[in-house]
């Protein structure tokens, strides 16, 4: 199924138009502070977040998986699902593929489907955390860090293959996340594991086209429960520096130990020009991959406050590659992704409302109370009308979730694809 512009425009006419008055009120309030609401609406409309191909079906936990009817079984169907989200939100104009879950059989056909939906290919993801059928080497004890030279070479070769596929699709970056580590003390020599990882990453970096970027993702634990070779931003940063100037750290919000100050990590990396990519999700305990903004929306706002500051003040940092990295156990995956996009854009819009000039003055005066008031004044502003106007301007649905239900998208997908299909992925 495909949603046409006209269908969405007609739906918008049936929606409550109060958001326009709400924006008039915001305009009169924020103009006094020198903040331009229409410029913020434009920035929100322009913000694009990649949808990961593996998030379009029901995820599972290690205790079970509950299928969702109408899940996409092929890459073509996954792209069609991203197309639906993009048609409704106009903020999901990019997709991130995971190889080998998404090996395209006919590259040109895939490119054509994506182009028809107005979707481009963002970072490619390699997978050296699972053994594939007929694999010649095993990743059971590691991949890029393995004690076995042949396993390391096999993993490097896989990454080169991902680069080749990405190049054909028009992608410009590779994300490497490694499950490599140890589940028990003594299992690994830390220094050798780090050295092997560095050597392997350098080979992958050298195989990238000149206009590509390498994103190195970190994670403190899971699937290994004693140590992970790339456990934190510092290790990732060090490895990125060892690779070269087009290698960067990738921050996944779920990849931190509880209470880590992620906004400070963001600020540090942007200051050094090394924040390359960002995976959005939310968590209560670990890498829970929950809907963005469902648990800690204020933390997300503080992170966006640093991202906005960095995008405005750190020309040494490239524009980051944004992606949602969430998984859906009990919700309709497409509804969940729409909710995540909404939360991301709300945090972004609120961060854009921060009165940076007043904040700087209050910081210089060490007026701690005022600093907090300035941040919370932005955070406590209801920005949903800004998002509605941004989507309306871009040709999307004013209320995408309501539209998704009104158009009975899930039922139509079930009618097309059946109840029993299962998407490839986690
Ligand atoms: C690892 C991770 C990484 C993978 C994805 C499936 O936890 O965040 O980005 O590629 O999940
Ligand atoms: Mn991730
Ligand atoms: Mn993760």
UniProtKB/TrEMBL annotation:
Residues 103-289 form the Xylose isomerase-like TIM barrel domain. It holds the Pfam family AP_endonuc_2. It comes from the Bacteria. SUPFAM superfamilies: Xylose isomerase-like. The keyword Isomerase applies. InterPro entries: L-rhamnose_isomerase (IPR050337), Xyl_isomerase-like_sf (IPR036237), Xyl_isomerase-like_TIM-brl (IPR013022). Signal peptide: none annotated. GO terms for molecular function: isomerase activity; metal ion binding. Keywords: Isomerase, Manganese, Metal-binding. This is L-rhamnose isomerase / sugar isomerase. It comes from Pustulibacterium marinum. The lineage of its organism: Bacteria, Pseudomonadati, Bacteroidota, Flavobacteriia, Flavobacteriales.
């Amino acid at each position: 199924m495909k949603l046409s512009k006209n269908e969405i425009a007609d739906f918008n006419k049936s929606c409550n138009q109060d958001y326009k008055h709400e924006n008039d009120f915001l305009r009169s309030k924020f103009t006094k502070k020198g903040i331009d609401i229409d410029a913020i609406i434009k920035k929100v409309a322009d913000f694009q977040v990649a949808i990961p191909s593996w998030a379009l079906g029901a995820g599972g936990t290690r205790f079970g998986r509950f299928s969702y009817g109408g899940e996409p079984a092929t890459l073509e169907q996954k792209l069609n699902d991203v197309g639906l989200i993009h048609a409704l939100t106009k903020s999901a104009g990019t997709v991130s593929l995971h190889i080998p879950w998404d090996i395209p059989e006919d590259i040109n056909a895939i490119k054509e489907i994506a182009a028809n939906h107005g979707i481009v290919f963002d970072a490619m993801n390699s997978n050296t955390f699972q053994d594939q059928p007929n694999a010649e080497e095993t990743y059971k004890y590691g991949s890029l860090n393995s004690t076995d030279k042949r396993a390391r070479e096999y993993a490097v070769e896989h990454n080169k293959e991902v680069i080749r596929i990405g190049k054909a699709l028009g992608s410009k970056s590779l994300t490497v996340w490694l499950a490599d580590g140890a589940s028990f003390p003594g299992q690994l020599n830390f220094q050798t594991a780090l050295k092997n990882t560095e050597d392997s990453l350098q080979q992958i970096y050298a195989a990238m086209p000149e206009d590509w970027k390498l994103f190195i993702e970190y994670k403190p634990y899971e699937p290994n429960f004693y140590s992970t070779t790339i456990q934190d931003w510092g290790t990732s940063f060090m490895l990125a520096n060892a690779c070269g100037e087009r290698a960067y750290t990738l921050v996944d919000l779920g990849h931190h130990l509880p209470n880590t100050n992620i906004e400070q990590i963001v600020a540090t990396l942007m200051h050094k020009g090394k924040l390359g990519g960002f995976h959005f999700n939310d968590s209560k305990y670990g890498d829970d991959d929950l809907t963005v903004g469902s648990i800690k929306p204020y933390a997300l706002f503080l992170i966006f406050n640093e991202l906005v500051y960095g995008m405005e003040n750190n020309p040494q940092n490239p524009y980051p590659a944004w992606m949602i990295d969430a998984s859906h156990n009990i919700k309709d995956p497409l509804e969940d992704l729409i909710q995540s996009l909404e939360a991301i854009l709300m945090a972004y819009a609120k961060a854009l409302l921060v009165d940076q000039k007043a904040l700087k003055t209050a910081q210089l005066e060490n007026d701690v109370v005022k600093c907090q008031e300035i941040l919370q004044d932005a955070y406590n502003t209801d920005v949903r009308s800004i998002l509605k106007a941004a989507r309306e301007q871009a040709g999307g649905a004013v209320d995408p979730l309501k539209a998704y239900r009104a158009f009975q998208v899930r039922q139509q997908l079930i009618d097309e694809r059946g109840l029993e299909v299962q998407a490839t992925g986690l």
